[in-house]
Write a structure and sequence with these properties.
disordered N terminus; 4-stranded antiparallel beta sheet; 10 strands; 352 residues; alpha+beta; globular; 18% strand
Length: 352
């Protein structure tokens, strides 16, 4: 009898808890399928407006659950129109389409060689590259950049922020002066960005051509003294393996020598950004006698990138083979290459 009474009390207590949290639990069940799907209610869509605020990004096995929880808190506790964007799914689709095109090319080649069924003949068909889960949490609903900026300024004045487990942090002193992991408010590091699901408006051909010519002249100036300049690459496509962001905007100075010339004191003693130097050094390592990669560097106003390979077509089977080779290359702890490398069109002179 006592045992039955105890069980009954536990059941009543559990029922009270369910009643207290029932609305939230039901709401979460209705909103969340427990995994990402194209129909997930938190997916950002074009209907969320052309501009958004990127609050935080997550990578890895827990990226989906952390993003979902962050969006839930933004909607529930801050009354903000939160969404997430599945970056990895977009990249996987691009990689799948590219690999599928390469697979068809390889199968056609094998058939031309007399192989009727590549699968039965045990012809090796490479699998698509592994892409880690990546999610960006965003606040949507902005018609233009200025309204998004005004909203972001208001968010930065918030005196509270989401749960600590959902935040990134830095190593810093705690209240006792000891070094510890300190969470950083995502509203302080957030930034305004275009809604990634909204198609970009097409520019008039003439305006686009003029912009391209100006951009190419800038690249020529910044890279004129770079021994490994990507502008000298004969191919139409290459693979980006590393991007170094520059803390300052590098200004092109026409007719005053290139970025690398000025860095080496060949013209006025200007200094080169650390990003540009690191890119050149990595390309030098990749070209060493031990590695023997065909590496290139491209300096841009806000970054310097390192590329490998020269390909005439984005669907060139050699590009996939090179990407797989680079995925196996380990330069840690000195450098960490992009996984997977990204196809990139080689800048070419504007057509006259």
């Amino acid at each position: 009898m006592v045992r039955r009474a105890a069980v009954a009390l536990v059941a009543v207590f559990a029922g009270m808890l369910f009643i207290g949290n029932g609305a939230d639990a039901q709401q979460r069940t209705l909103k969340s399928p427990g995994k990402w799907t194209p129909e997930h209610p938190y997916n950002i869509t074009p209907e969320a407006g052309p501009w958004a605020i990127c609050i935080i990004s997550y990578t890895g096995d827990t990226a989906f659950s952390l993003s979902e929880d962050m969006v839930s808190e933004l909607r529930r506790d801050f009354k903000l129109p939160g969404y997430f964007y599945n970056r990895s799914e977009a990249e996987r689709k691009e990689e799948f389409d590219r690999e599928e095109a390469l697979r068809k090319q390889r199968w056609e080649f094998y058939r031309q060689q007399g192989v009727q069924d590549p699968l039965k003949q045990m012809v090796h068909i490479k699998k698509p590259l592994h892409i880690e889960d990546q999610y960006a949490v965003m606040i949507g609903g902005y018609k233009d950049m200025e309204s998004a900026r005004r909203s972001l300024e208001e968010m930065r004045r918030f005196d509270r922020f989401p749960s600590a487990r959902l935040l990134h942090g830095v190593m810093g002193p705690d209240k006792d002066g000891k070094s510890s992991y300190v969470p950083v408010s995502p509203f302080l590091t957030a930034f305004v960005c275009p809604n990634p699901t909204v198609p970009k408006p097409k520019e008039p051909p003439q305006a686009k051509q003029e912009e391209f010519e100006t951009s190419y002249r800038t690249l020529q100036d910044l890279n004129s003294g770079e021994a490994y300049s990507l502008l000298r690459c004969a191919g139409k496509w290459t693979l980006i393996v590393r991007v170094y962001e520059s803390p300052t905007v590098l200004q092109a100075q026409h007719n005053q020598g290139g970025l690398f010339d000025r860095a080496m004191g060949n013209n006025g003693g200007d200094y080169m950004s650390a990003a540009a130097k690191q890119a050149h050094q990595l390309a030098d390592i990749l070209r060493s006698k031990q590695l023997k990669f065909e590496s290139y560097v491209l300096h841009a106003p806000k970054m310097s990138m390192v590329c490998v390979g020269s390909f005439n077509d984005e669907k060139d089977p050699r590009m996939a083979e090179m990407a797989n080779t680079l995925c196996k290359l380990r330069l840690e702890p000195y450098e960490k290459l992009m996984q997977p490398p990204k196809p990139f069109p080689v800048p070419k002179p504007p057509a006259r």
